[in-house]
Amino acid sequence: MSLRDQIRKGSTEILILSLLAEKPMYGYQISQELQRRSGGYFDMKEGLLYPTLHRMKQEGYLTSEWREVSPARRRKYYIITDKGRQVLREQAVEWHTFIEKLLPLLASPTGPLKNT
Is residue 77 within 8 Å of residue 26, measured between CB atoms? Predict the structure, then answer.
């Protein structure tokens, strides 16, 4: 697995929680919104998205409900819970700390972002 894939996989939960903190969404909508907002960087396939949603539901971060979108069509919408909002806050703090500590190392005089 490439570094990019590892980073994206490690951020899956916070990405989903961030979107659902704004409003309930169905699975395909989550996938499309992540792709749109990231300019295609976060391309979350079904094989990662749906197992993650299922696990997050089991852990109490989300609930779901079926909604009628037309007379013959229903969609399962995912809704963040209070526990999910708390996890989102905790993960956001951890990600901010990680980025805050990583960027100075990358920009140091001998770091990889300097020309040699």
Answer: yes
10 occurs within a structural domain: yes
Q: Is 113 among the domain residues?
A: no
What percent of the chain is predicted at pLDDT more than 90? Answer: 68
Taking the C-alpha atoms of residue 79 and residue 84, their distance in angstroms, rounded to an integer, is 9
Give the CATH number of the domain where residue 20 resides: 1.10.10.10
pLDDT of residue 114: 60
Least confident interval from 33-37, 60-64, 100-104: 100-104
> In which domain, by residue range, is 13 found?
3-106
Here the contacts of 31-36 (C-beta below 8 Å, separation 24 or greater) are none
